[in-house]
Amino acid sequence: MIRVGIIGCGSVAGFGHAPAIHRTSGVELAAAYDPVPGKAQEFTQRNGGQPFDDLDAFFSHPLDAVSICSPVGVHHDNVLRAAAAKVHVLCEKPVTTTREHAEEMCRAMSFADRLLMVGLVYRFSHAAQDIRRWVREGVIGEVRSLRLVYLWNLHGQWMNDGSGKWIESPLWRGRMLEGGPMVDCGVHQIDLARWWLGSEVVRIHGAGAWVSNYEAPDHVYAHLDHESGAHTMVDMSFTYGHTAKEPTSTFTYELIGTGGVIRYNREGWKLEILDGSNTRAVPGASEKNFEGMYEAWRDAIQTGSIGDLPDVEAGMRAMEIAQEATRQAIEQRVAPSRPATIVS
Ligand SMILES: NC(=O)c1ccc[n+]([C@@H]2O[C@H](COP(=O)([O-])OP(=O)(O)OC[C@H]3O[C@@H](n4cnc5c(N)ncnc54)[C@H](O)[C@@H]3O)[C@@H](O)[C@H]2O)c1
């Protein structure tokens, strides 16, 4: 049994990691750490394991591996602590903010002779796995264009409090300091594009829109040219519909090839292949699969073979591309926008 400890008992640890650990045979949730007093206790009451608010005490507990679910700014420190404790690490995306940190993390983990993998969980969705296989089999010929779109209201300034009153969202302030939508979420899509195509990004063009007057653009477009000649467009928003009474989201993948199109829509988990002879609808799936990721991680720890798990280089490339697209968007901003207005 692989004894896993969770570092950082917030949102993703609760909805993604803990349930997946429980559903994956061969792994168990042994401990959880959070520096906020009482948070680990609350978390372990719901999910099991020993609670800790002291990191030394957490690492004194018998563990084989840790899942790092803390904010990106402290991933580096937590990985170094895990390396010193000689445990395997699954680190949430974005893996870290600088290449120097990434290299230091890899050196420490390699010295500890333990695995360091990045939790880019979209890779394990059945839809993403099918798409990867179809691209390799050439079912739509040669893929020339990818359009990966995710528009949602995560950090919009305004929210309806349910009684019809508009209030400022508690998630609005500060969150964009983590890098904005392309860094925070777009790393998944950028990783998928590189992984599906097996082709490096050689040119990046980023542009942005300020719908809600953040310190970073809340809507970022990345245009990426791959070595193969294919082009990827990633379109990400954190404020889509934040002034609408009922915000909705758009989450789609489109792969356009010389012999057809593959389309995925999270709405209804629709997955289709359109080629010269047919339109085939195949069973879709959620865009995330934490359980699949934990199965792969368990197998990697047991066999040493990482399978589809992203390594630090993959995580870091996605991060650097997202950072560069965001940097260009900010640098090329034309004019400050006025604050968002609510129209009713
Ligand atoms: N893959 C996904 O679907 C997904 C979804 C959400 C978040 N994430 C990623 O997971 C990470 C955490 O995001 P979240 O939304 O759960 O954030 P969160 O703010 O909800 O939770 C983070 C937790 O880490 C704790 N923390 C703060 N400093 C810490 C430290 N030094 N060491 C350990 N813990 C510390 C906080 O107290 C908090 O409980 C981020 O890297 C984020 O990008 C991934």
Explained architecture:
With 344 residues, this protein is of the alpha/beta class. The protein has two domains: 113 residues, 3-Layer(aba) Sandwich (Rossmann fold), CATH 3.40.50; 209 residues, Dihydrodipicolinate Reductase, domain 2 (2-Layer Sandwich). It is 33% helix and 27% strand. An eight-stranded mixed beta sheet has the order 10-11-12-7-13-14-15-16. Strands 3-2-1-4-5-6 form a six-stranded parallel beta sheet, with helices on both faces. Strands 8-9 form a two-stranded antiparallel sheet. Strand 15 and strand 16 form a beta hairpin. The longest helix has 20 residues. The chain is globular and about 55 Å long. The protein starts with a strand and ends in a 13-residue tail after the last helix. The mean pLDDT is 95. The structure holds nicotinamide-adenine-dinucleotide. Nicotinamide-adenine-dinucleotide binds next to helix 1.
Distance between the termini: 56 Å
Strand content: 25-35%
Name given to the CATH homologous superfamily of the largest domain: Dihydrodipicolinate Reductase, domain 2
Number of discrete helical segments = 10
Gyration radius (Cα, Å) is 21 Å
CATH class division of the largest domain:
Alpha Beta
Give the names of the bound compounds.
nicotinamide-adenine-dinucleotide
Topology order in helix (H) and strand (E) letters: EHEHEHEHEHEHEEEHHEEEEEEEHH
Q: Would you identify the CATH architecture of the largest domain?
A: 2-Layer Sandwich
Oligomer: single chain
- Return the CATH topology of the largest domain: Dihydrodipicolinate Reductase, domain 2
Total domains = 2
Number of strands: 16
**Structure classification:** alpha/beta
| Main sheet attributes: strand count, strand direction, barrel closure | 8 strands, mixed
- Shape category: globular
